[in-house]
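Try this one yourself first.
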């Protein structure tokens, strides 16, 4: 029986009965002034938490941004091989890494030591023959040396990426192998020490550096003074060829780089990280220059590498990057 009808008949509500208009779970509302004070206190707590955690939030955001950037780079540096990811766990990457031999390590050590001894000797002698009369020609020579080094880095990179095989005698395991490994596991180079990273490039510059050193000990001071701008060109070329793979390694390194390296990359004095990502989009057929990367756009614009590939393929019948694709698709 409803409560109102019971009361009208003379009944009294029991201890658990409710008066009309009240709901079972309703709570009495606080006064308006109390509600406003509680809201203001909540706002003050929110502002305190926001200001107190601003720095932590900023650091977390930066860290998250770096992680997202690294993930994006990793995604762009993966091949078109279905579910098989590039990286250290790729079958081909493991097999290629195991081909790095003690003999190769010894060759790299010898080349690095000889190269930097010759660089030190030649630099000391170059300084002794420099004068203000050489200023303009030396600047032009250094710039030309950098441009030449960038082109040669592209030429060697294109040749090793596009042609040849790891199975070739002598040069296959020693020099083509690192290029195959790099496309399957692009970050492997960041785990290489200074010797493994720069040994082959140091070997390439031994002959011009040794020839320069021979001139310094055999030619007269008058001749050396006259040829000083040319020697500066050769020296700049040798320096940037020597450092090319170190610069390449930095372009794959997204954490812990010195500030001066990041500055040089940001101003495109050496190969920038974002610039080099273009090459690592499968099938790796463009942007081969890896010293400064200055020549990548003009060479791509005129179709330089494609023209060379068409000529070689027409003459030999060999397909560009066939061996590179074979290693990328290796599953056992």
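Now uncover the answer:
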């Amino acid at each position: 029986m409803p409560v109102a009808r019971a009361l009208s008949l003379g009944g009294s509500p029991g201890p658990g009965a409710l008066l009309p208009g009240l709901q079972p779970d309703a709570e009495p509302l606080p006064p308006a002034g109390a509600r406003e004070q509680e809201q203001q206190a909540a706002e003050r707590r929110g502002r305190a938490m926001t200001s107190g955690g601003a720095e932590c939030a900023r650091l977390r955001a930066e860290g998250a941004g770096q992680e997202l950037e690294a993930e994006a780079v990793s995604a762009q540096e993966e091949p078109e091989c279905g579910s098989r990811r590039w990286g250290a766990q790729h079958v081909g990457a493991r097999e290629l890494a195991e081909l790095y031999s003690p003999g190769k390590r010894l060759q790299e050590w010898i080349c690095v030591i000889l190269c930097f001894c010759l660089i030190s000797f030649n630099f000391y002698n170059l300084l002794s023959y420099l004068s203000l009369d050489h200023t303009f020609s030396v600047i032009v020579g250094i710039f030309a040396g950098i441009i030449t080094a960038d082109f040669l880095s592209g030429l060697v990179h294109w040749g090793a990426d596009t042609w040849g095989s790891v199975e070739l005698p002598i040069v296959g395991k020693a020099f083509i192998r690192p290029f195959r490994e790099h496309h399957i596991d692009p970050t492997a180079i960041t785990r290489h020490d200074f010797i493994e990273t720069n040994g082959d490039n140091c070997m390439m510059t031994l002959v011009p550096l040794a020839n320069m050193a021979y001139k310094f000990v055999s030619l007269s001071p008058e001749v050396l003074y006259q040829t000083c701008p040319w020697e500066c060109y050769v020296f700049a070329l040798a320096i940037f060829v020597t450092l090319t793979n170190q610069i390449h390694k930095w372009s794959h390194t997204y954490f812990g780089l010195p500030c001066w390296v990041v500055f040089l990359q940001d101003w495109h004095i050496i190969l920038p990280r974002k610039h080099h990502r273009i090459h690592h989009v499968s099938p790796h057929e463009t942007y081969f220059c890896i010293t400064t990367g200055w020549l990548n756009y003009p060479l791509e614009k005129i179709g330089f590498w494609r023209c060379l590939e068409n000529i070689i393929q027409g003459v030999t019948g060999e397909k560009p990057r066939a061996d590179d694709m074979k290693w990328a698709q290796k599953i056992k």
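Discussion: Residues 78 and 85 are 6 Å apart (CA to CA). The mean pLDDT is 80.
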